[in-house]
Each structure stands twice: as C-alpha cells, then as structure tokens.
Fold:
Amino acid sequence: MKVNVTLLGTLSSRYPDYLPDRGLEVEISDGAKVDDLLAHLEISATQGAVVIQDGRILHREETLTDGQRVTIFLAMYGG
Amino acid sequence: MKFIKVNMTNKMIGYEEVPVAYLGLGGRGLTSIMINNEVPARCDALGPENKLIFAPGLLSGTPLVNTSRISVGAKSPLTGTIKESNAGGTIAAALGRLGITAIIVEGQAAAGELFILRIDENGEAGLVPAQEYQGMRTYALTEKLLETYGKKTSVMCIGPAGENRLKAASIQASDIDGRPCRAAGRGGLGAVMGSKGLKALVVDQRGISPDAIADPETFKEAAKAFAKAVKDHPFSGQLLPNLGTAGLVGPVNSMGAFPSYNATKGVMTGWEKISGEAMLQLINQRGGNPSHMGCAQCIVHCSNEYNDPQGKYVTSSLEYETIWSMGGMTGIDDLDTIARLDFLCDDLGLDTMSTGVAMAVAMDAGYKNFGDGPAALQMMEEIAQGSALGVILGNGPKAVGLHFNHARVPVVKGQSIAAYDPRAMQGNGVSYATSPMGADHTAGNVIGEYMAQKLDPLKAEGQVEASRNTQIAMAAVDCTGLCLLASFALTTPEGAMAFLQAMNAKFGTQLGPEAIPQSGIRVLQAEREFNKKAGFTNLDDRLPEFFYKEPLPPHNTVVVISDQEMDSTFNF
Structure:
C-alpha cells in the first residue's frame, strides 16, 4: 500500500529530491503500523518522532491504511 | 556579589553586598522576590514607587554554556501584575563577569530628563545625560553607544515606544554582533524604563571579577557533560541550529493549534510559506545565516540573519512567536513582510507578540483586511509617528479591542496569548490563565507532553497537573540564567544530573533534585502574593469568554478546563 508522508524540520534532508508540496510516496506492506513506517524511513524511535494525521498524533501501534497522508517531525518542546 | 542601586530621582548610586534576605537568588527568583518585598503592589507601574530590576541568573558569568539570560523585573504597566521579562544576548554574561547580582533602578527622573547608566570594566556605575538620544531608535542608538564605549560593550535600551511609555514597549538587548535584536519583550517593561528616564544600560564586557566557583574542577566536568547533553538532544542539537524556533510553524499547524486570523482558526492557509522550512530556504538562497549565534556562550545557535532578495540584512532573529503574531494572527503569508515587521518592532522597541496581536484585533474588528501586509506596515508607521491610533496599537491588543469595541481579544490579565491555541492545547490554556505573568508561553509550555503522547491536547485530563509542573520547572530555570532552549536537556537524566552538579559545584552546596521544584514554588508563591496584594483574585485566572464558546477549526473544540480545575493549579 502507499502512504504519503510530509516531512518537517530536518527530516527531509536525507531525500534530496523531496518536494514539500508533494511529500514522499512510501510503498509499505499492507497492515503496516506507524512504527513500521518510521523504521522504513529509518527514523529511530529514540529521536522522538511524531506522526500526525488530520491534526491527531497517531500512536505507534496504529495500523496505516492505503492512501493515508501523514506528517512526521521530531518532537518539539516550545520556544 | 553586589547590588547596584540607582535612584533616578536624586541620581545617587549605591553599592551594597547582597543582603542576607536575597542570598542564593538570581534571575527571576531575585526580581520577583524583591519586587514582592519592596514595591507597593497597588503603585502606579509608571510612577516612582515601581522598581526596575536587572538580574543575571545564578550561573551567568560562569563558563557554563547558554547562561547569558537576564531577567528584568517590575510591576507591569500592561497587566498590573508582577512581571519578569527574560532576554538573551551578552549582557547577563557581562554582568556576571563583573560580579553584579542585580541593578535596581528606583525613583523617577524629572520630566524631560534622560540618562544612560554605564557600568565600566571595574563594575563602577555612572549616569550619563542622554538628551541627544531622545527619540532615537534602537539600532542607531546601539551603533552610537558601541562607537562611544567600544565594541566590547553590552547594551539594553529602549526605543521611542518605551520613551512614550507605550504598554507594549520592550527593552532590547544587544546580541553578539552588537545588534539590539534580542528582547525583554513582554509586559511593557520598556515603558517602565522610559518612565524612569533611563534610555539605556551599557555594560562593559571585560569584567574579570565574577563570583568564585566553589569547586572549579567539578564544575568544569559538569559543564562539559551538560554541553554534551544539549548537543545530543534532537531539539537543541539538530532542529534549532537549522530552523530555529520557526521550526514550530509546521508542527503546530499540523496539530491544528496555530491561532490564526485573530484566533478564529487553528490552521493558517498557506502556513507553508512562512514555515521554518521556507525560511531556511530563503535564508540560504539570499546569503543569510540560518544558524547564527546570537547570545554569549550559546551552543544551540537558534538565531538567524534574514536578508532581503538583494542579500541585504533585514532582521535577526526571526522567531516562531513573531512569525505567528505577525503572520498567523494577521493572515500575512509573506516572510519578507513579517521580517520587516520584526525589524521595526526591534528598532522602535516593541514586543512583537503584543504588536502583532494588536494588529490582528484591529483587522478582526474590520479596520483593515487580514493578510494585508502593506496595512500592517502602515500600522507600524502609525505607532512610530505616535498618532492617536498608533498609541492605541502600541498599548497592546486590549487597548485596540476597547477602541474598536471588539470583543474577541485574546489576552489574559491584559497580555496576549502566544502561538498555541488553548482550545487545541488545553494545558497551555491553563498556563495562560493561571501564570502570574498574564498569558505567557515560556512560563509553562505543555507541548512536550503532547509530543511524547503523555497527554491528549484536546481533553481536560492531566492538563492542570502538567501546567503546574511546567510552571514550577520554568520558574526554577529562570533563576539560573539558563536559556529555555538549552533547558530541554534537563529532561534527560544525563542533562539533569550534570546541571545539578554544576549548581552544587558553583555554590559549594549538596542540593538534591528536589531543590529545583522547591525554588520554583518559592518564586511562584512570591509572584502570586504580589498579585493578590495588587487586587487580583482567582476570577482573573480565566481565559477570555470566546475561548470557551467559539469552537476552533479544525478540531472544533473549546476550552474544557473548568473554573474549579483552574483554581486547583497552584495547590501549594
């Protein structure tokens, strides 16, 4: 299945062809969870990645669906 | 460890060793406890009984990274509450190196008098007549002061806004490059400084008499470990050096919590154009600096130098709260306009947050359209000219709301909210409502709890406790001179241990971790006591009605914290 990922902060720097208004089209196995997506993108859990869809922070064990659009960034603390 | 007391009425300057009652206090702890002890709570904030206190933190002047934060305290003319306003730059480190614990400015100069307070490399203070600087904007003023006193000079100054006693007036602080682009922004302390007849505080950076470190070897090891913790933390080590705090625009919009169009929506249309990512691209294209070091001893480098399309300097540092107030709240989606507004606020000596929200209220009232950049620049010009509307705008959002008879004014105790809508981040709503400072985000930002998924930002559960704990922690950190952005390293075991070791090594103490919340509670108690004496009650610890009544898209939620819950925040 395909998931569209918007990467914020410095996360997109490892994808030289990344375009902010297009995002990243990620091919991932059916039934994959949020954790699997992060692993696929090599974003380590210890970095404090946050995965959001429609304003809601997704839990790590949530299952993704085909065509889903998510935004990922590393945790922020304010400023 | 000395106080310098400056009486602006009779121009006398006195030096004293820090009295016993104030030993062990620094930064916000010192300013708040002293204001509570010595300023009549019902006095006129712009009158002679108010005191303006400049206090570096307990660790300012030591070699520890990111400790050049200064606290400026007084009774606020904007809120009528106690106020501590915090700024970076170089001045806190400079005062620390001179062994100066606080400068206490008292009394009031006669009408028409204006002075500079200069402190030389030996820590000797003198008042210098400053009539020639009357009306001068901060950039021109700082340039002149550095010419006069040399480049190794730190400046805190007011612009025309402070001289005219506008309630949103800031005190600007010079950065590493000598630009007055850091700010003790909130609460109108620039007006207090102006009311005392003080145009600038000028401090020599060449002091070599800091207070002794009790155990220098242990301090050195602890400082090294703390610096590592700051660098290792992904926020302070990676995001901030690259995007600065502007990196928050995307995430907060993604959470539907970015107060936009005078807090009528939680997502701004076109936020991508004013995001940290967009800003980084523009800065790089135009030869600016996205990782600028603004403050002494900083290893985070959250600051930036923003240029125009011709590569000419516009402003430094363009930060999240300014992008929010001048962009999200006004609907202006052009970074060049926002950068220009940022510069104008610094140059006139105005809080960017209060000013942007004031303009947003004017737009919401129908004075101008949302998104009208030229109109915003024209409003700044009105403030600069001191026109009738300019004075209203410069007095902040509440004054604008009263003038236009407009009810949607996002302030608590007269101070505007910050860049997190309480309807989509309930815990931040608790902090806005209950902080002794008025609506304030640095006082108690709960966003970290949401990111770590410890709390649901839209529900009431756990928000009061989170706000309380964060407010206590921040009150403690604000005593030390440590920058908020480096303080997130304290959330790691290594960072917390190293920092505590550094504190103990500095003072020869053996404090445990419980000392940190204890000091924060002591500060908050003093602040609440002052506010109570000033006439504030629990009824003032509330958000404006529209936050409880108007659902915020996209979540379509309202503030769901009950009055009873709000009142339980300070359970000490």
